[in-house]
Write a structure and sequence with these properties.
about 600 residues, alpha+beta, four-stranded antiparallel β-sheet, 19 strands, globular
Amino acid sequence: LSASSAASVVYKRQLLATNALALSLAPRAFDPVPLGAVTPTGWIKQQLQAQDSGLCGNHWLGAGGHVNDSAWVGGKGYNALAESYVYWLNGFIPMTVQLRDDKGMLEIKGQMDDIFAMAARNGGWLGPLVNNSEPWSSYRFFTCLAQYYEASMDDRVASVMFRYTRVLADFLLRSPLNPGSWSQVRWQEMVTACQWLLDNFGTTATPDQLDSTQQLIQVLVSQGFNWTGWVASSSSNPWVNSSWDPGHKIKPTPYTQRTDISGGDLASFSLPSSGTHMDCESRCNTTAGCLAYVFAPPACPPENLPLPMCWLKASVETASPNSCRNYRILGENHIKSEVKGWFPTNTYDADMIGQNKWKPKMDRMWTHGVNLAQAMSTWSAMYRLTGDKAYLSSGKAAWDKVLKYHGQATGVFTGDETLSGLPPTRGTETCTVVEFMNSAGEMFLTTGDVYYADLLERVAYNALPAAFMNGTMWSLNYFQQVNKLDAIDGCEQGCTYCFGMVYECCVANHVQGWPKFVARQFAASNSGLVLSQYFDSTTELVQHSHKVSIAVSTGYPFKEKVNITVMTCLLYTSDAADEEDSVDLGGRRIIKKKKKQN
């Protein structure tokens, strides 16, 4: 929990090879600084202290009860999704680190001990919903594990995460994500967490660990909801949904290497030099009658072509060993395509979808505010996977479109619970507020575009405080409205709930708002540090062999003046150093420069 331990994480990263490049993940514009490097002071610290004294610090999860009631930590459980605990943990970990709460960290470690032991008993499955068709809560727990590692440097984390990538990938190949399920629309969170895993442990992972992680990413992308296509659709360019046929006449198989299959060919074609088997899978998924595909890397006999090759199969007859060909059966008639409509650009259309009255029917999950707020990070995840800058521009267009037709003065969009248009009387769920903030933070780090940093600030200083009824953070709104005179005690369209509300998600999930905002105040790049948000803080870390101490003093957002004090100290290694003048950071002996002896 000390500043030196936070600094050691940065220093250790700088000693490693660039994992993003080594594993073909496109690097971000800025890297996040380790959790704990930024220590809040002043007004922002008071918000964290109020949160610690309120619902979060007292471990309340809303209508469902207490943290100890969660099945994640041995309780009976009360939520079919098992999500409330991981919502809470996602904010409790960074809050505990930033407040330097040793007792809280010991509690978190004890919970991790229990969860890791449960995973060991269940063959590596994380969480209480073993082999469940709705693994969404494990996605959020992966995000929690990333934060827990940076807070604790617990050596068990990497192996637990890598093992689960194999378990979940194998499960999803047998039982694909159900269309419209929470897990299908929130796939990008797990992909982002897997990218963190590769960034931090990719160069030390085994080939099997790398393969399982990359396979899970590919499975999630192929089975997950197509947010890019959906948000870009319009009445003049309707969206066509592709989903698994619920009949599953032939079960999908895992991606099988060094094996060829014979059968009727639908098409064959070469791919770009960077093409992978996922390009074949994408083409098969969008080709009528495609049952399976075969992928061959460059120079694969007998063709020995300079580019990767793909064959789409209408039938499968036999399988035989092959030194370099690989295949996957996706399932007979596995694609069912039909025009579903388009992204709603007005309140009437949005309400029709949200109330399941659209004909032909569209799934309200696509317009669910929290789902969309989480999905706003999709373009970050896809850019890192592909390196295609088109995702950066299409992502910016998607954010602009959502806010153009559903945005509010606070910076966030309406969603009570589904998209609601521009009327200021319509509500925004507190979960939507904090998930939107998180997505804005992810997009800023990946793109470096201050558009997202500005949005994050606007929402943090306007929409997030509006969620709480008083400074104690013992109560909060389920929905907030920019301009509404009445408080309706109903379920949808602008209602207001306090503690004891029927949905426990916001009571648990609001806790990520301030801690993650604090954690992202600074970011790192090859050329230095980036200060993206103004609030009182002290920050200590190591950047390019320099120990850097930064103090931000400001009355912002209540006053315009900001004072920034920066102190640096050059660090280097030398066998001629005196032991008493040295300190151990990340496994390296860092020493002060010796004074020249006369």
